[in-house]
Design goal:
Layout lengths: L1 H6 L11 H10 L9 H10 L18 E4 L4 E2 L2 E2 L9 E4 L1 H7 L4 H5 L15 H14 L7 H5 L1 H32 L4 H37 L6 H13 L7 H6 L7 H7 L12 E4 L2 E4 L4 H20 L1
Antiparallel strand pairs: 1-4, 2-3, 5-6
Helix pairs in contact: 2-8
């Protein structure tokens, strides 16, 4: 939609913001690759409960698009000594690979990190952890002391080159800041006009976003009223039940009413924001207090009536 391009202004870029990418490039450029045989790939997939026909992300079960290093190659900007070989590679989707990064896979997979399987509400995570643990024990992967192999002098030369690139980036950033300052038109009159125009644009965009979100809520409620087992339905229905007996509903109270939902925090957050990929904004969160988002209160009233009718019909049948 056109207004989204106005609302989401480009993120300011920094030359020095690419230093981690440069570091990873310097390490990955020297990592040896041991190409596996077909039998080794077949054995690896079998341990993960897969074959050529059921090739999927080992972390979440989505379609696999790449191979991820189970044990990271880089930690704290230093090589760990592991290399690229089948004993240290598992099928992965882009979301999991991006989210996991250089983290320990077992800590990450059960964390609430953005795009982690747990934060996305992926089921059967425990069984995936068992398979990955077995995979980790399958064969001891190669681990090399890079400096000992290539020699101190050559190793130092490699990192001197890295430092030269980093220093050049820092100097380039200083020059870029100076050039940007010269190009910026920051006179008082222009600054005032710009601020006014930006305020008007922001107001218009927010109004349109709110209208679109109400449409989304309407669509979601139609689905949730007929699917009470869905997590979002459970959270909303529990809130409505608590609302009949409590004057104030806190996040802790709502969470305690649904102890079986492991992804409660993530789902509640998704139901409390306006975003393209949210579940639909239902709540307002204010100092640990949960309330219905005011613009959709009439929709919630209608939802509750339909829900009560559905429950009555179910009890009669």
């Amino acid at each position: 939609m056109p207004y989204l391009s106005l609302f989401r202004m480009p993120t300011p870029m920094k030359i020095t913001g690419r230093s981690s990418t440069i570091t990873n490039a310097f390490i990955n450029a020297i990592i040896p690759i041991n190409y596996p045989s077909n039998d080794e790939v077949k054995e690896a997939l079998a341990i993960l409960g897969m074959n050529n026909e059921s090739f999927q992300c080992a972390y979440c079960g989505d379609t696999a698009s790449e191979w991820d290093h189970l044990r990271p190659l880089v930690v704290d900007k230093k090589p760990t000594g592991y290399i690229s070989e089948i004993q240290n590679l598992v099928p992965s989707c882009g979301k999991c690979n991006q989210s996991k990064g250089n983290k320990n896979w077992k800590l990450w997979i059960t964390s609430e990190a953005k795009l982690s399987p747990t934060s996305r509400g992926i089921s059967n995570i425990e069984s995936r952890i068992i398979k990955l643990t077995n995979y980790e024990k399958w064969e001891i992967p190669t681990k090399i002391d890079f400096e000992a192999v290539v020699g101190e002098e050559k190793w130092q030369q490699h990192w001197d080159n890295w430092q030269l690139v980093i220093d050049t980036m820092k100097k380039s950033q200083l020059l870029a800041n100076e050039i940007k300052g010269l190009l910026a038109n920051d006179t008082p009159q222009n600054a005032t006009n710009t601020q006014t125009n930006n305020s008007e644009i922001k107001t218009t965009v927010l109004q349109q976003l709110e209208k679109d979100e109400i449409v989304k809520v309407t669509r979601k409620l139609e689905r949730w009223v007929t699917r009470p087992s869905q997590i979002n339905s459970q959270i909303l229905n529990s809130f409505l039940q608590l609302n009949d007996t409590h004057e104030i509903i806190t996040i802790d109270l709502l969470r305690s009413s649904l102890p079986e939902i492991n992804t409660f925090n993530n789902n509640l957050n998704q139901m409390s924001i306006i975003a393209e990929q949210n579940h639909a904004k239902i709540f307002e969160l204010n100092n640990n207090v949960v309330e219905i988002w005011k613009p959709i209160q009439p929709l919630i009233d209608n939802y509750q009536k339909r829900l009560n009718t559905a429950l009555i019909n179910l009890s009669i049948s």
